[in-house]
Amino acid sequence: MMKSVKDISWECGKGWWPMIEKVASAIDSYNAANPGSPIEVSQIKQKFGGLRIYCYNAPEDIRQLIDLAVNASWHTCEKCGSITGVTTNLEGYRLTLCPDCRKEIKQRGITKRKITLHRHEKDNVNINELSQEGIS
């Protein structure tokens, strides 16, 4: 017996679950009506700040429903489901969040270190002294 889409691990925040539930219900209904050629869902997750639903054998109408959910994920907070002021950060681990949820994320500190290279007389290599600060 084929697993329900609702039994597959959803590797994303709860804010996107209502969208996924709509897709999952449509896929489960399709699979119940078409047991000979079911849609197989291999993974549901967040990747690069957007929703991904990986599946096989999906007909065009289900594919369009998945595309709608994926497109909506870029405008929906992954954590709370808000659609107000949602942005996706473009540096580091990408998250699509509303301003309130983004405030809750612990900001990474800037690592400062000093690098000093000195020329060795015996190496016959001409490396001048170099100092860099603020490297993260």
What's the quick description here?
The chain is built from three helices and seven strands. With 136 residues, it is an alpha+beta fold.
Description:
- It is a single chain.
- The chain is α+β, with helices and mostly antiparallel strands and 136 residues long.
- It has one domain.
- Helices cover 27% and strands 20% of the residues.
- The chain contains 3 helices and 7 strands; from the N terminus they run E-H-E-E-H-E-E-H-E-E.
- Strand 2 and strand 3 form a beta hairpin.
The count of strands amounts to 7
The radius of gyration is 24 Å
Q: Which percent range fits the helix content?
A: 25-40%
Q: In terms of structural class, how would the helical and strand content be classed?
A: alpha+beta
Major sheet summary line: 3 strands, mixed
Percentage of residues in strands: 15-25%
Quaternary state reads single chain
* Backbone shape: elongated
